[in-house]
Amino acid sequence: MLAYILVCLVALIVAALTLFSGFGLGTLLMPAFAVFFPVTVAVAATAVVHLANNLFKVVLIGRHADWPVVGRFAIPAAAAAMVGAWLLGLFAGIPPLLVYQLGEGAHEVTAVKLVIGVIIVFFALFDLSPRLGKISFDRKYLSLGGALSGFFGGLSGNQGALRSAFLLKAGLEKEAFIGTGVVSAVIVDVARLLVYGLVFYTASFATLPSDVTGLVIAATAAAFVGSYAGRRLLRKVTLRTVQLIVGVMLVLLGIGLAAGLL
Predict the structure, then answer these.
(1) Distance between terminal CA atoms of the chain?
(2) Which of 58, 68, 66 has the alpha carbon at shortest distance from 176?
(3) pTM, two decimal places
(4) For the chain, how many structural domains are there in total?
(5) How many CA atoms lie within 13 A of 25 on its CB side?
(6) Short-list 79, 26, 80, CA closest to 49
């Protein structure tokens, strides 16, 4: 029950915020899943919710997407996302790098937790630092930006900050910027889910926690409600305080994962 409450609450709130901010649903939802499931399962489960929610947002605002920009950004993003997703599976198969005793409990530092933890801390800096949060790149780097954001999306589920940084200078109006980002995210989600399906689900379907499916469905429904609320109510919300709180929490979570404490 705690898993449902936490994951659905995160999905609801973050989906509302992410429609008009630099937040990424996957950035916060993946750590919420990771509290209850293995990191690889958390990333894959987050991708399912992320895809479903983005499809819903495509219905809301996808018609405003700039398709030439989508082509330049999303195609390399999808290819890189598949590489990142494959690497996640590769890291998941590496034996623990370190096992240590803390109090009465044994903790393992694994390659996959270390990588994901470091990436979470890196992207948390975009929330904590106003300077990093305002970084943007020239339009000529769209394809490179797509590849970078797609790669990290496939590897860890964190892609929203980089996607926004590279799309900001594409010369798009507000609704076109949001619509282009949403359509690009859908393409990346489909690409990485294909690899997750091959690497995780078909290889170890029997070992997946039995309540993953129900939690994914519940989180998806909560994200739908959040996106709808965001579309109607949150156009003028300022999010700096929320970003700072979230950034600190993500840093602590990333350190905890990398150190094998979670």
Answers:
(1) 19
(2) 66
(3) 0.76
(4) 1
(5) 34
(6) 26
Please tell me the distance from the alpha carbon of residue 33 to that of residue 234, in angstroms, as a whole number: 25
Of 183, 220, 216, nearest to 12 by C-alpha is 220
Dihedral angle over CA of 26, 27, 32, 37, nearest 10: 70
pLDDT tens, residue by residue, 203-250: 544 455 556 777 888 888 887 787 777 666 555 555 566 567 667 777
pLDDT in tens, 100-122: 887 777 888 888 888 888 888 88
Question: 14 Cβ partners below 8 Å, 6+ apart?
Answer: 23, 25, 27, 28, 29, 223, 226
Distances (CA, A) of 215 to 7, 37, 48, 106, 108: 8, 11, 11, 28, 26
Reduced to 3 states (helix: H, G, I; strand: E, B; else coil), residue 85 is helix
Look at the block and give the residue holding tokens 């894959």.
44
**Other Cβ atoms closer than 10 A to 176:** 18
Q: Which domain holds residue 176?
A: 2-258
